[in-house]
């Protein structure tokens, strides 16, 4: 019984230390985010990222919505084969296009940037992983840069996203 009591005391102490470490990390992130948001050039960079990411998805999404083939790659190439298979699904191909255009439009509206970045992220991450998996040269470098730009926007909007993190405490002052 004595060992059980000591174990519970140690576990409680470790849990409390872990909790306070997370609180310190959250406070640090809030302070850094506040400083970064005050930089004019970083604000301009976030606007540039929003426009660039939207410009990347609007044309490709519109092609999918119109039901046209996205590329003229041969089906002998793994990426061409994949895109041909998606094109033949019909509604799924159109759905991808609608989501791309929706994410792009949401990125252009200042009030909806966070939602647009959240929708954009899994789409561009999928494109990046697919490009690397089949060694597609067409988006070998552009897709990782788009993923990084999207991560930048998610970090830029940390103040709106921090509520979903387990270490966030609304009573904590930054």
Brief synopsis:
This protein is an all-alpha fold. The chain has helices at 2-37, 40-65, 78-89, 91-108, 113-133, 142-156, 158-161.
What does this structure look like?
The protein has 174 residues and is an all-alpha fold. The protein has a domain at 41-158. It has helices at residues 2-37, 40-65, 78-89, 91-108, 113-133, 142-156, 158-161. Helix 3 (78-89) packs across helix 4 (91-108). The longest helix has 36 residues, at 2-37. The radius of gyration is 22 Å and the shape is globular.
Terminus-to-terminus distance: 43 Å
Instruction: Spell out the helices and strands N to C.
Output: HHHHHHH
The outline comes out as globular
Task: Catalogue the unreliable spans.
Answer: none
* Counted beta strands: 0
Helices, strands, pairings?
Elements: H1 2-37, H2 40-65, H3 78-89, H4 91-108, H5 113-133, H6 142-156, H7 158-161
Helix pairs in contact: 2-4, 2-6, 3-4, 4-5, 5-6
Q: Top keywords for this entry?
A:
174 residues, mainly alpha, 7 helices
